[in-house]
Amino acid sequence: MNRFAPIALVATIALFLQGCAGWQSALDPKGPAASELAWLIWFFTGLCAAVWVLVMIALALPLMMRPRARVEPLVIDADADNRKLRVVLTAVGLTVVILVGLTLLSFFANRTLAAIGSHAALTIRVTGHQWWWEVRYEDATPSHILTTANEIHIPAGEPVRLLLTSTDVIHSFWVPSLSGKLDLIPGRMNVLDIKADKPGVYRGQCAEFCGAQHANMGTFIIAEPREKFDAWWNDQLEPAAAPMSDEAKTGENLFLKRPCVMCHKIGGTPAGGTVAPDLTHIASRQTLAAGTLTMSRGNLAAWIADPQGVKPGSHMPVVDLNGDELNAIVAYLEGLK
Amino acid sequence: MSSADITSERDLPPESEASAKGDIAPERDGPRDTGLDDASLHRWLARTWRTPRGIIGALSSVDHKVIARRYLITAFLFLCLGGLNAVVMRIQLSGPQRGLIGPDLYNQLFTMHGVTMMFLFAVPIVQATGIYLVPLMVGTRNIAFPRLNAFSYWVYVSGGLFAWVSFALSMAPDVGWFAYVPLSGPEYAPGKRADVWAQMITYTEVSSLAVAVATIVTVFKQRAPGMSLDKIPLYVWALLVTSFVVVFAMPAVMITSTFLILDRLVGTHIFNPAEGGDALLFQHLFWFFGHPEVYIIFLPATGMVSAIIPAFARRPMFGHLGLVLSLIAVGFLSFGLWVHHMFATGLPKLGASFFTASSMMIAIPNGVQIFCWLATLWDSRPVIRTPLLFVFGFFFIFVIGGLTGVMLASVPLDLQVHDTYFVVAHFHYVLIGGSVFPLLGAAYFWFPKITGRMMSERLGRWHFWLAMVGFNAAFFPMHIVGLWGMPRRVYTYPAELGWGNINFFISAGAVLFFLSFVLFAFNLVHSALRGAPTGDNPWDAGTLEWATSSPPPSYNFARIPIVTNVEPLWAEREALPVATGLRVDVRELVVSTVAEAHPDIREKSATPSIWPLLAAIAVGATFLYSIFTPWAIVWGAAPIAVTLIGWFWPKGDPEDEG
Amino acid sequence: MNQRPAMDLSGLPTFGHGPRSPTWWGTLGFMALEGTGFALAAGAYLYLATLWPNWRLSAPQPNHWPGTIVTLLLIASLVPNHILNGYAKQCAIGPVRIGMVVMSLLGIAPLVVRWFEFPALNIYWDTNAYGSMLWVLLGLHTTHLITDVGDTIVLTVLMFTHHGYSGRRFGDVGDNVFYWDFVVLTWIPIYLLIYWLPRLG
Question: Is A268 within the bounds of a domain?
Fold first, then answer.
């Protein structure tokens, strides 16, 4: 009945193939949870498409039939109506069977998902902030507790437990190629277990509207082989690297004198703010401002000089710096590997 | 005759009392329609039921058709505004990192789009259609509580103006149409924007609730003699069930917005987890309303489909009883699924599974409706005119929306697609497919009744195909981009995620879809002025609204029809049986019994009054003022009381005395 | 279309009491939606009470006496309320006028005591969520009470004018009686929630 359907279909398929290589896609699973879910999505889609086609055929039938239009509307063929009744009841019965089947299917899928994280050895607390992620690696030894931001390193092939909460508004943690989403709610704690089958970088972003910069609240899960992950953790536990150049030294002094220290922490220096991302190893991260910019000298300068231009509405204030001061601070931060 | 009126009463006053006091105000009897010739009957009734002349007269109107027309036009204007919002958003999203608008404006735009479409367009327009059609379909002369009905319109308009003037002042809410706390709470939403959301809700809900009560009472008590429960048209059933859903669902959102405004304005802690409140309580309350809301919008549309199909299939609806029971079942079940909007909040798994089952279950009565409609169409080749085309479009689109709804009901699956463009696609398929397409069909179907002129069939077909192509181009790809990981409510997205091309395609479709409404608006205006004049019943349909002239006179029916069949005009081809004996010099209509519709009382219907408008102004000003200080409620009480007393105080009309 | 007269309605009465009248059904509709509002507010209270194990959040117990007096007054008022209904059905203007005056007074009395109920809660609305919910519940019912008492007083005045002795007015009195029953009925669960539930914890 829709003569444009074939064109639309071809166009859709073309678009579909073009985008399938996305690295933030529920259809491109890289872990057991997302694989289970991708399978579920395809199964539901296939079944629903079949039902839809059947309904459309039933709709098209009277248009294909060519008997003359009825004249006297109240004269009803009782036998024909009885036949229809049987068809309708069969269709209702089928609907019930399909729905019960789908309900059971999603129930069992849920159980499979719940089993994924049952042996998680690593626990990471993820706290949502407007508009970045605070990441804290829990450990029995207090000196091994590690706080970083926005990028979550995990060992590949191992289940990891994420404890999700928020200090301001509701956010939602979602890395589609690894698992479904779960909300971060102030006053509550949610548990999400994830596992990446292979090493790789998996992008995610906040999925619950959280204010002005909801669009720029990205996160990365960086799955690495176990030994590389352990090495990373050890490196991150180190205090910040001392500035090497004179410019960087000037930068450190400026950083410590300016309002930067009110919000940011740099391990090994007096800077101890906790309301914004920990910058101890900022230069080791791949992006800036929760996935908004890639890490580079130019982007660091842009972000510090004009945070409201890069991320309008963000809580990072403009700090009054001249060109030399800006360069010095950037040089310092750039050394914080 | 006058004393006969009282003495014929079942519950007669004690004789001593009445005669001793001697001050009983017996009804002064007036001329009856019995035996009047058609011309004088028309003259009498036209004079009795007319809306007074002049501006004050127009503002005093209590004619359900006049109010409904205003409602329809206003809601259509809000649709255009909400649609423009969407087009602006789509231009911003047509490519990655576009700088057309920033997050502050974008967040206001998507909030206003949602709020406008839900509260200022969808609910009012389905209720307005009911205000116009229900009294005609049940064969009465006006809606029950006509002044309340007028009041509801004025409150609705003031709520809409309030929201849009706020938008013009850059004070529009920017917290989403759902306004979750804490984002909308006192700490994270300083300023007045979230208060505008909360009070705008109050305006529109007061108005919807008033219309719902008036509709229920009209259907229960004002049906034409003989229209027993089994002979009520399906459209009227749909509006009845919808009104019940409104009555039980809308208080939830009023409670939600009241709690929010209390937290914001006077420092209560209902949603504050730090002081014993809870943020998720807001979501429970909001979705206890929010899910039924979908059915408030959808059920009247199913009624329209059930009215259009029989007319073009040339037979009564197959499975009438099944359809009625499905409507009632959907109404009940709609209250049992709200949690499926909250699967991602981390609720206990067992509870979530229960809501999966209940969400799946609502597909059963909806399936019954679809199968019955299809079975009705199977008899023969139907007459294909624009209204039926839109019903076909409804099937094409809504079934997809229903099926993706089944996908969302599954907890694990929902965790991937929740709050992504997949959900945006889903509910636009449900709401536009399930409600707007039937509404457009209904517009073509009832336009001749409302205006006396046909809409252009040629433009109608163009409109249909443009809408079909534009809609599917705009919304189908959203399913895909959602699965690719694009969340909702983002004002921009990075280029490297590869969403650019598909979003450009979506935006092009959205513009096309918007243009289809421009064509529709042109067709409306053109046909209202130049359309082919039509008779009472251009489609040869079977329900009572087609028994009177097009457009109907102020009194709807010169004589109240008597109903002998669910499609009375098909059953009484020769001459429609009618009742006589009503007064023609005062506004009299027939009140009947609830189940059997036996005529029971000759009730007076209210006369035009300016007081509902004044009351609405008093109420509206109080709501507006209340976003600034809670004392507004105290100050506002006096003018509200005065206007309400003015409204109800008898003015000496016979209608006031009864 | 053509018409044929088939029924004569000229003998029908022009007003009816109770479920016969549309106003009664309208009143019922408003009760349904207000009742839903009350139920949801009560539900919100219970939701928070079960969410927090230390509910009452270390606030002092409310003093139930003003609330108990209001409850007794409200229940007592049901008796004259229903006597009034009987007279309204009989269209007896004299007793109805007296009854309306009595009901106005019986409406004002609990409002006066209500004034002392708020301090007797022993907590402010902005102290914590427990205090907020108590004030909200009591405030909702007080609004309800004030509007209905206002309505009763206006109708009382109306009954003393020449508009009073008409079928429609007696119907209005009947609906007012009906609505007052509802005001009393909604108070009972709120009273238990405010004053007796916290004592359990």
Answer: yes
Written as six digits, the tokens of B407 are: 């996908």
> What is the distance between the alpha carbons of residues A127 and A146, in angstroms, rounded to a whole number?
13
**Beta A293-294 vs B576-580: how paired, if at all?**
unpaired
Give the closest-approach CA distance of C52 to chain B in angstroms: 7
Q: Give me the domain span that covers residue B192.
A: 56-530
Is A19 contained in some domain?
no
- Give pTM, 2 decimals: 0.94
- Structural domain containing residue A81: 24-233
Tell me how many residue pairs between chain A and chain B have CB atoms under 8 A apart: 301
ipTM: 0.95
CB atoms within 10 A of CB B383: 15
pLDDT tens digits, B606-643: 999 999 999 999 999 999 999 998 899 889 999 999 99
Same domain, A274 and A188: no
> What rounded mean pLDDT belongs to chain B?
92
User: Which helix (H) or strand (E) segment is B385 a member of?
Assistant: none
Q: Please report whether residue B112 resides in a domain.
A: yes
Is there a single domain that holds both residue A28 and residue A144? Answer: yes
For A154, the token pair is 């995990």
In a domain, C179, yes or no: yes
* Mutation choice for B interface testing from A83, A103, A167 by most B CBs within 10 A: A103
Phi and psi angles of residue B38, each rounded to the nearest 5 degrees, phi first = -55, -40
User: How many structural domains comprise chain A?
Assistant: 2
Q: Which of C29, C44, C133 sits opposite B247 (nearest CB)?
A: C29
Residue A238 placed within a domain: no
Looking at the structure, tell me whether residues A87 and A109 fall in a common domain: yes
CATH number, domain containing residue C32: 1.20.120.80
Digit-coded pLDDT (tens) for C15-30: 888 899 999 999 999 9
d(CA C149, CA B637): 14
CA distance, residue B188 to nearest chain C CA (Å): 18
Which DSSP letter does residue B189 get?
Answer: S
- Per-residue tokens: B97: 């990192």
Minimal CA–CA distance to C70: which of C154, C183, C147? C183
Q: What is the mean pLDDT of each run of 10 residues along chain A (337 residues)?
A: 50 48 82 94 96 95 73 86 94 95 92 86 96 95 94 96 96 96 95 94 96 96 96 95 93 94 93 93 94 94 95 93 94 93
Contact A214 B484 (CB under 8 A): no
Domain count, chain C: 1
d(CA A246, CA A248): 5
Cα separations in angstroms, A33 against A113, A179, A200, A270, B13: 6, 5, 16, 42, 77
**Which CA distances in Å does A113 have to A155, A164, B56?**
19, 17, 66
Chains that touch C (3 or more CB pairs under 8 A): B
Smallest Cβ–Cβ distance between C10 and the set B209, B288, B581 belongs to: B581
Closest partner CB to A110 (pick from B313, B411, B484) = B411
DSSP state of A27: T
Would the pLDDT of B14 be above 90?
no
